[in-house]
Amino acid sequence: MQTKNIRNFVLDALFMTLGAMAYAVCINAFTAPNNIAAGGITGVATMLQYVFGTPIGLMVLLINVPIIVWGMVEIGYKLVVKTMAAVVLSSVMIDLFARFIPAYRGDPILVAIFAGVCEGLGLSLTFIRGATTGGTDMVARLLGRRIPFLSMGKLMLAIDGMIVTASGFVYGSIENAMYACIVIFVSTSLIDSILYGTDRGTGKLFFVMSPKVRQIGERIMEEVERGVTYLDSQGG
Questions:
Q1: Which residue, among 63, 38, 46, has the nearest Cα to 115 in the 3D structure?
Q2: What pLDDT digit, counting tens, does each position of 77-116 carry?
Q3: Calpha distance 236→233 (Å, rounded)
Q4: Which residues contact 179 (CB under 8 A, 6 or more apart)?
Q5: Measured between alpha carbons, how far is 65 from 61 in angstroms, rounded to an integer?
Q6: What is the pLDDT of residues 26-61, one digit of tens each?
Q7: Which of 37, 26, 30, 50 is nearest to 176 (CA)?
Q8: In the prediction, which pLDDT does 201 show?
Q9: Which of 62, 121, 169, 185 is deepest in the core (most CB within 10 A)?
């Protein structure tokens, strides 16, 4: 048991660090230098840097603090601890990489495509280990508990849509908002491909039959952070 815990800790640290590094490359090499705010808290922080000159990583961390506190109150400390670590890692990497990563200001389409690839890769590595980078996905998850008739995907789309729309006004360019949409499309497509393979993100469904379904369901929700549905059935 001890060896398994150590192995999981090492894998968590490795994947989330690599994910944070890829995400930092996306921000510092592609999106921020080209005034692209591709949704999320990072998009807000990118616009704040443009207007006030504040460090992106620091602002991502500060904006995420109340969101994480909200998450701890709503769903418990254990379920957000990995997200807390991922937020700190990504924030540190963004500001660290800003010191030496060269900015690419070439073809805007290439900027959007490669930004989407780096972002999708970075977020996928984080999601694989059961963490998130906070921001809109955490907000959508928490709002979903209050507004259950709206899916998490629709809530994320609405929040990111408002951020991307705001970026058009902040940068004074509709094209920048359009490039942000390309980044989001590429990154989400890559995330689906990495996490779900060729089934286009339709997910997986498992039927578990056991006299201890309640105990199994509780552990799945607490430890794996996945939803369960209890079914009463009768053989024919």
A1: 38
A2: 776 888 899 999 999 999 999 999 999 999 999 999 999 9
A3: 10
A4: 34, 36, 108, 109, 111, 112
A5: 6
A6: 999 999 999 999 988 999 999 999 999 999 999 999
A7: 37
A8: 44
A9: 121
